[in-house]
Amino acid sequence: MTRNKKLIRILPLIALFALAVSGIVLSPSARAGGPLIVNNGTPIRWPRGLTQGGPLNSQTVNASGTVLYHVDSGPLGTLSNSEATALVDRIFGLYSSIPTANIRFSNAGPIIDPDSRQPVDVNSSNFGKFTSSTRPTFQNPIVFDSDGSITGGGGVLGFFGPLQLDGINNFQVEGFVVLNGAFVAQLGKIPFLGVFTHEFGHFAGPLDHSQINGNIAANSASASLPPGFNSGQIFDLYAPFTETVYPFIFNAPVGSQLRNSFKDSGAFIASLDMDTKNALSSLYPAPGFFASDPGSPNGAIEGRVVVRTSTGDIPVNGIDVIARRISKGAYPPAPGTVSFPNNQVPLDADGVPLPPPAQDATDSLATASSAVTGVQFGPGRYRLDGLPPGDYMVEVVQINPNATGGSGIGPLDTQVPLIVKEQTLGSVTVNAGQMAGGTDIVLAGFSNAPLVAVSEREPNEKAAKAQSLAIPAEVTGSGTDQDAAKLRVIFPGGQGVGLLNDLYTFTLTAPKTVFLSLDPISGSGDMDLYIFSDAFPGKKIPLGDASMMGFGATESASEQVAVQLPAGNYFIGVSIFAGSFNYRLRVIQSQ
Ligand SMILES: [Zn+2]
Q1: Which of 172, 204, 236 is the endpoint of a domain?
Q2: At what angle do helices 189-204 and 81-96 cross, to 10 degrees?
Q3: Whole-number pLDDT of residue 32
């Protein structure tokens, strides 16, 4: 029931002091690992030919397919306009020189005020003139919010937004980036450059966030940390390999050797990692990038992630799949391994750390790629392109649970709580020119008891009449958007109401992870799925109420929800938001 839902994407690069970055996602689109915006399975990209219009008849993409950006004429915090512009040009130079990608970005001069026809310092008083999607200026403005007054409070470092989306051709016609100069002094110039670099990845693809090494480097509780390292050693090994589009900045812990020169991860995302390069290359492939291209030096891996049940495998969307090459060095690296020998970090002429030198011991961190399932290639499916040959460890990992909303990785509002937070498929051999695949990753830890087959019994729209389930269960039911409903879920901000047409109930005598999958057998429209505890407040349940344990309310007819639940009594609500269906609801709990 997301029809009226306007999700404002605020993408914090969050540290202990919340930093942020972001954009706006327009319905009907979904986010993704790799591409940021996906429309019915097709990623949104820049047009590849002349794109022109607005009051200046200016171009956002020129006839040869180069994306043209315009830069603010004002300063950026402690940086002069020429210093800040040089940073912008440096970053677009990185994204323009990926050998496997064929997209280029070029500075087309200052942002021009369409009224005065003169270069302009964009600030909070005139910002709307350059970021109106109804009266676009076709300039791809890069805005220097020198004093932070455009961005406002809340620790937001900057943000990205598509200004014009063409949903017919799946193009981003115009985009913009705002950089919050109020943070330059606090972060330092080079970490701030890293933040720029991250932000421009959203603009350049548009690319989504990703997670490979960053969550480990941050010593996250959601990560599977390598044995034999303390937190400082983990930072020193992994932080220099952090994905540019990892959604958070994090501080170097006490005990880190790199901390003397780098107080956080910012400087290390100022160069592009393999995964970010591959994500852009997948959208704008140069000949030879894809394994199927003639003479490609690369291979690829594809497959699905599923929950296995007695009535068949259920493909699971939103799962982070990582492939790490392990034929040069093992993963995880042996204790004592460091990214830079002796923790000495060479810098380039601008003061930016060079990427860590190639070492067999760290190849599994450097030669790594990721994708989120169910975004582009079908339910539960992933594909990793652009892999150099070798043997790879393929694994699913827990996505940082804070990586939602503006910091999201993949399409989910709530990350799936994996029962086993790092699960390895084993070694897959990648050969040049070949797609390795066909092997499903079965999520570990779920009950393998046969599903109890149940037919829906009406009436079941009152909590007192909710149909009791013994789980794991497979319910066959039906409904229409005209069916009776007594309970309703209230979305915040007047974004809508979900009527709960069919209610089921079950009891957990111990804490469990519960996975629910709702799928149409026949019919069409939009079904949504809710799970809430018996502490619900009454006939109207706010979506944010503490009793609401999880929900799936996309525009799709299929929904999945995975939640960790304490022992207790729970209700499942099936909402026929639009249309009519015969449906199948499967409820599986952890062992
Ligand atoms: Zn971001």
Answers
A1: 204
A2: 50
A3: 37
Say if residue 199 is in the same domain as residue 224.
Answer: no
Ligand 1 (ion): which residues have CB within 5 A? 11, 21
Give yes or no for a contact between 77 and 181, defined as CB atoms under 8 angstroms apart.
yes
Handedness of CA 474, 476, 482, 485 (dihedral sign): negative
Domain that holds residue 518: 452-589
C-alpha 36 – ligand 1 centre gap (Å): 10
Number of domains comprising the chain: 3
| CATH number for the domain harbouring residue 55 | 3.40.390
The C-alpha R_g of the chain, in whole angstroms, comes to: 24
Q: Is residue 209 part of a domain?
A: no
Ligand 1 geometric centre to CA of 225 (Å):
24
Decide: 105 and 177 in contact? Cβ < 8 Å: no
- Domain presence at residue 409: yes
Mark the ranges of the chain whose per-residue pLDDT is less than 70. Answer: 1-33
The sign of the torsion formed by the CA atoms of 64, 66, 67, 71 equals negative
Residues 6+ apart with CB under 8 A from 493: none
Cα 245 to middle of ligand 1, angstroms: 6
- Cα of 508 to ligand 1 centre, how many Å? 38
In a domain, 130, yes or no: yes
From ligand 1's centre to the CA of 64, what distance in Å?
28
CATH for 261: 2.60.40.10
**55 CA → ligand 1 middle, Å:** 31
**Ligand 1 mean position, distance from CA 313 (Å):** 33
What SS3 class is residue 23? strand
Do 470 and 507 sit in the same domain of this protein?
Answer: yes
Q: What is the DSSP string of 424-438?
A: EEEEEEE-TT-EE--
Cα 202 to ligand 1 centre (Å):
7
Task: Please give the C-alpha separations between residue 163 and each of 54, 141, 176, 406, 446, in angstroms, as whole numbers.
Answer: 13, 10, 7, 17, 43
Shared domain for 113 and 232, answered yes or no, is no
Structure-derived torsion over alpha carbons of residues 71, 77, 78, 79, reported in degrees to the nearest 10: -10
Distance CA 343, CA 67 (A): 38
How many angstroms does the Cα of residue 288 sit away from the middle of ligand 1? 29
How much is the pLDDT for 344? 94
Residue 460, classed as helix, strand or coil, is coil
Ligand 1 center–CA 32 separation, angstroms: 12
Sequence-distant (6+) residues with CB within 8 A of 5 are 27, 491, 495, 496, 553
Q: Separation of 269 CA from ligand 1 center, angstroms?
A: 12
Kindly report whether the peptide bond that precedes residue 206 is cis, defined as omega within 30 degrees of 0: yes
Q: Which of 204, 223, 244 is the last residue of a domain?
A: 204
Give which of 346, 298, 589, 312 is closest to 469, Cα–Cα.
589
**Which residues are CB-contacts of 304 (< 8 A; sequence separation ≥ 6)?**
313, 315, 373, 379, 380, 381, 382, 440, 441
For residue 19, being part of any structural domain is answered with no
> What is residue 248's predicted lDDT score, i.e. its pLDDT?
86
